[in-house]
Amino acid sequence: MGYPTFQVPLLSWGPLATVAAFATLATLRVALIPAGDQTDLAGRTWEQFAAQDPKIASLLSRQLVTLGLLGAGFGLLAALVSAIPYRRGERWAWCSLWLFPITFGAVAGRQLIDQYPAGYYYAGLSAVAVVALLLPIRDVLRPRDRRFGA
86-109 pLDDT, tens per residue? Predict the structure, then answer.
């Protein structure tokens, strides 16, 4: 006997796992690509910037690696939760996965405010995730017997 579950269509967990995997790759890219290749330095090369202010350059490099690894871990976790417990119809997984589009939507919003084009990428990931999570909403919100195994 286990917790009550709901039916999850392939059109829900499949795209959700896919966008989580894309998010993992995008953020892992941030961790692996040198900071100088990711940063607009107002006409300076990374070497010029790092020579002028090595402490700030080092801090920026470490922050990009940290943010990239955290984002990749979050994306991988979302992919695994969507592919295993959410696919099985576990309600806790559906509730937990809402953190994914909310977080990536916030990232997209901030990047778009700053006029950074990657914001459109994260907005797209967030939008696909929201649609995928809304597909089984009738089954998820259906009243159920509170006893286990019902």
Answer: 999 899 999 999 999 999 999 999
